[in-house]
Write a structure and sequence with these properties.
The protein is mainly α and 110 residues long. 85% of the residues lie in helices and 0% in strands. Helix 1 runs antiparallel to helix 2 and helix 3 runs antiparallel to helix 4.
């Protein structure tokens, strides 16, 4: 039920975004209304992004289906480990990039 409502809301937002984009393009044809047309175009793009996000399935739903579809216990355990280990990749990546920059800076300075 909720998925259907999300999909309907997403489609309505996409239709509204496309109409706003057309109106924004028409307004951009005149020099006087160009700023209003550009602002309306940006608003249409933002609404389109929200609409697409509502139409696409949520990450939790995808992971739940992936875990449920796997029948072999070893593969299911690997999927769970992967889901658990992917919670902090940004922090680890930032640390690795920082270490690499420091090493590179030391090599370049000497």
């Amino acid at each position: 039920m909720i998925r259907a409502l999300r999909a309907v809301a997403g489609v309505l937002l996409l239709v509204l975004a496309s109409l706003l984009m057309v109106v924004g393009l028409v307004l951009c044809l005149t020099v006087v209304l160009l700023p209003l047309g550009v602002a309306l175009g940006f608003l249409a793009v933002k609404l389109g992004k929200v609409g697409v996000r509502l139409v696409m399935p949520r990450r939790a739903d995808v992971q739940r289906r992936l875990e449920g579809s796997v029948r072999i216990p070893e593969i299911r355990a690997a999927v769970r480990r992967l889901a658990r280990s992917s919670r902090r990749p940004r922090r680890r990546f930032r640390k690795r990039v920082g270490r690499a920059r420091r090493r590179l800076g030391k090599r370049l300075s000497s």
